[in-house]
Amino acid sequence: MMRRTYQTFTNVSRTHHRRLHRELVPSTSTASTTPNGGSNTNTMRPSLSSMLLIGTTIGGSCYCLAVLDNRQHKPLVTSINTDVNWKHHHRTTLPTALLATSAKNLADDELHNKQSTSRTFSTRADAYFQEHKKIPLPPIIHDNLGRMLSDDEKIVNPLNSANSKCTDKILLIGDIHGCLDELKALVSKATDEHNNGKQFKAIVLVGDLCNKGPYSAQVIEYVRHQLHWYAVRGNHDDRALAAAFGDETCLAKPKYDWVKVLTDEDVVWMANLPYTIRIPKGLLMEETEQHMNNTSMSSGHDVIVVHAGLIPNVDLEEQKLKTMLTVRDLIPIPRREDDSTTQHYKYYKNSSNADESPIPWVAAWHGPELIVFGHDAKRGIQLEEFAIGLDSGCVYGKKLTGLILPEKKLVSVDAMEVYCPI
Fold it and tell me: DSSP secondary-structure letter at 117?
């Protein structure tokens, strides 16, 4: 028989064939142990994370045209020979037209059908939580984007590196809260309209990837598979981690039901999220030369991404975790007689004390670093000289907003619906 190959994008390896076969074989049952000592028997079913496009080619039948990853919309299998030995595969009668399911429907199926069998509760992070009853700190609390990019490049095949097709611009994105469709739409818009269709050097998320919205687990899985995408930990990510580790208080709340579909890989990735990411001025200098009219970015200061904010006049390493995850307002502390030039502040907790006069932390932050943050949807976009807030309330039916550096260009997309009341 004449061998014919229909090639769409790249060649198919034997590994791809085996992966496809594993997704199509009948289910088997396995047991896993929960952190409470119980046993869960789960049925492993073919993953719905991939979309199988099957049909016929001109002149004859074809085993498969493509398998598309629903999370990345990238081809996993893109070339199949027509001389496949069918007796080793499960036959299915299918129409000749391409069979496809929308990404949104697949995401719905993924949430309900993705099995927790890969959640073993045996990672180092799980062991730490089981022993200490608290979430472990990430390996690096205050990370550096230059280091992160360098580490990624060490494990990326240079021939397939995205750097050859990217600019030096960096995209920062506000609170996502499970709004996967809006996340993809925002990146697409920023890429096409503000980056000449090229990839960004890096995409950094300000935290709160999950909770409240429709696709929390899918957002986590999607983001962690993207090259040169990074995130800091938000307060909702933190509580979701506690639920994923088995915290009974969190698990008792229906809003955390979605964590049951997370894998070990998802949970370890979340546990490793830093609390801040510093973007060194050197990463922005080359692009900045093209935007010299932007005086604040050409002044040569670093950018720090944090979920909620920082307290002025406190070293980064001395900032409390609670501050970085949840601060919105501060209380000025009366100046000491021996330190009349420095104003100090403390974290403001809602109280009925009429003598307290809280102020937004951004009003007290005077640099030198530019802080980019989220967490404050009620105030919405905040634009100060040395602080920019990006939480524009997407999950509440408003917008998802990004910031392009170094020119500090805002870009946004509308929420597709109201997912949660504010």
Answer: G
- Judge whether 237 and 227 are in contact, CB under 8 Å: no
Least Cα distance to 279 among 146, 141, 138 occurs for 146
**Digit-coded pLDDT (tens) for 392-419:** 999 999 999 999 999 999 999 999 999 9
Distance of CA 200 to the CA centre of its chain: 15
For the stretch 225-269, pLDDT in tens is 999 999 999 999 999 999 999 999 999 999 999 999 999 999 999
CA-CA distances (angstroms) from residue 217 to 228, 266, 282, 334? Answer: 20, 8, 34, 45
CA distances in angstroms from 407 to 10, 38, 157, 182, listed in the order given: 36, 54, 30, 23
- β-sheet bridge partners, residue 30: 42
Whether the bond into 95 is cis, omega within 30 of 0: no
DSSP assignment of 292-334: TT-TTTTT---EEEESS---TTS-GGG--HHHHHH--EEEEEP
Give the CB-side neighbour count of residue 316, counting CA atoms within 13 A.
19
- In this structure, are residues 413 and 189 in contact, taking their beta carbons and an 8 Å threshold? yes
